[in-house]
Amino acid sequence: MYQFMLVIVAMALIACGKNGHNESESQQFSLMEIKPRNITLKNTYSASIRGQQDIRIIPRVDGYLTEVLIREGERVRKGQTLFIIDQVSYKAALQAAKANVAVSEAGVANAELIYDSKKALFDKKVVSTFDLVSAENMLNLQNHRKMQRKIIFHLQSLKVHPMVLWAKSLIAKVTMSVRVLKKD
User: How far is 110 from 100, CA to CA, in rounded Å?
Assistant: First the structure.
């Protein structure tokens, strides 16, 4: 065992001896001098920007946007026009409602003539109370139809005006995801 250890120590001394390189043969490296200087580094990062306050903009009517008057992220003021919605169908409905009001006014005028005629004939005892009351009811019906059609006309006129969407809050940053559809 003692001999075995002596052999291992001898081998270790031989292995730790010269390994074939001269100490005078050290490798030479070139040196580089580092000087301070300004360098611009360009890096690209993925990011998304969100506003401090997101505002959902919902029109009171349906339709296609014909104009977008603001850019995303732009500050807007209360009352500022943001979008304009196509008004063709709403203007047509407004004209139809206006025509219906005119038809109702003609119906009222006709019912007034009939009522006045029946009243004069009733005063002369030519027509019955039933005929006079029927004419009066028809006049009332025509007046109510006229009022109803005027209300519809008014509501249609309100639909044409909100085709322009205004900012409702005092100051806000607009974030929008709007798809503008072009007409063919």
Answer: 15
Q: Tokens for 178?
A: 């709007």
Distance of alpha carbon 67 from the chain centroid: 12
How many whole angstroms separate alpha carbon 64 and alpha carbon 163?
10
What does residue 81 show for φ and ψ, rounded to 5 degrees?
Answer: -75, 130
Enter the DSSP assignment of 52.
Answer: S
SS3 (DSSP) at 67: strand
Q: What is the pLDDT of residues 19-48, one digit of tens each?
A: 555 555 667 888 888 888 888 888 888 887
* Whole-number Cα distances in Å, 12 to 21, 149, 179: 18, 114, 81
How confident is the model over 100-151, as pLDDT tens digits?
999 999 999 999 999 999 999 999 999 999 999 999 999 999 999 999 999 8
Q: Which secondary structure element, helix H or strand E, spans residue 147, and what is its range?
A: helix 129-160
Structure tokens at 75: 């500050």
For residue 66 the two structure tokens come to 């014909």
Q: What is the pTM of this model?
A: 0.49
82 Cβ neighbours under 8 A, 6+ residues apart: 57, 68, 69, 70, 76, 165, 166, 167, 174
